[in-house]
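Shipment paperwork, digital attachment
Item: protein structure file
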Amino acid sequence: MATSKKVITRGEWEKKLNDVKIKKEDMNKLVMNFLVTEGYVEVAEKFRMESGTEPDINLATITDRMAIKKAVQSGNVEDAIEKMNDLNPEILDTNSQLFFHLQQQRLIELIRKGKVEEGLVFAHEELAPRGQENQSFLEELERTVSLFAFEDFSDCPVGELLDMSQRLKTANEVNAAILASQSHEKDPKLPSLLKMLIWAQKQLDEQAAYPRIKDLSTAILEDSVV
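Attachment content:
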């Protein structure tokens, strides 16, 4: 048997919202977490000075992390590896999957430049031994070397490896590994909280009609139609 939804007026809803007390200090920490994780070092420094909110990592390391990420996104993988080792050599020493993916990206860049012979030698000497030790690495290697068989990559079933999205995927993996080495979350907390807000509203929609946020960019309450 269907039941009618409870109707909550704007006045009632706003009173409930006002009764929830959120410390400004906690909001500042949330903002700083976002700036640090996303790599906005200049904004984070300015926010630190204006709000007195201290980041949980050295802001100087953000510049290093962003330089490494940019190097991968630009296809300069060797430069990225060198910078990572300068920052913290233990990251690659203890993360075989990340190191393999960086080497795989180096191979992809050689293929992109048409350096077939150099790419084949690199695959044989650097990647094949790792593939023999790990089945998933071997499968990824086989997918990558299959690019050598195609002159027109538009007809290649694994042509997406040459897309910018592949560089971004590797760069994001590098970014997450650096953050983890600094005991920092790989993802900012703010987007997760917004996802929770959307989920909570969907759950409440089944039970009540209330002023809800439809546009997260404005956070303006809009009255729901009963």
